[in-house]
Inverse folding.
């Protein structure tokens, strides 16, 4: 009887140890750690131009807006409507098309994420709004190692 109890306690101990070990290993995977430490650059589509997300409005002073990031940076483009275009039914909205990559959907909702993309290699990546490219709504991401 005593040996039966010892075997049962040992079996329960192994079961509890196994149950607590699996989630801990899953939480420490390198991919989740890398995703949480990846740098993020925030840009906006506004007033028929691209600019920094922190800018109150894009004024078009740089019609081919450039931003510099390092390899591994996630770039997020947001729709900002400081001109009141959302109030007009025929407002076409904005999109982001990075050369060599699929275009985003056209977005018309103020504050919405238009596109997010991780740049995994160095180089210069041109992008534009598919609706307003001819009006100068273009940009360039320059990706470097450091």
């Amino acid at each position: 009887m005593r040996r039966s109890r010892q075997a049962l306690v040992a079996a329960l101990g192994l079961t509890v140890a196994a149950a607590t070990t699996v989630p801990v290993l899953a939480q420490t995977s390198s991919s989740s750690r890398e995703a949480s430490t990846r740098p993020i650059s925030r840009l906006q589509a506004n007033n028929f131009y691209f600019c920094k997300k922190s800018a109150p409005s894009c004024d078009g002073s740089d019609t081919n807006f450039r931003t510099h990031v390092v390899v591994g940076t996630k770039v997020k483009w947001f729709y900002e409507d400081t001109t009141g275009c959302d109030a007009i039914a025929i407002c076409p909205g904005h999109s982001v098309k990075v050369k060599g990559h699929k275009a985003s959907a056209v977005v018309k909702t103020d504050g919405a994420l238009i596109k997010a993309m991780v740049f995994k290699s160095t180089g210069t990546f041109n992008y534009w709004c598919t609706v307003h490219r001819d009006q100068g709504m273009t940009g360039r991401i320059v990706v470097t190692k450091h």
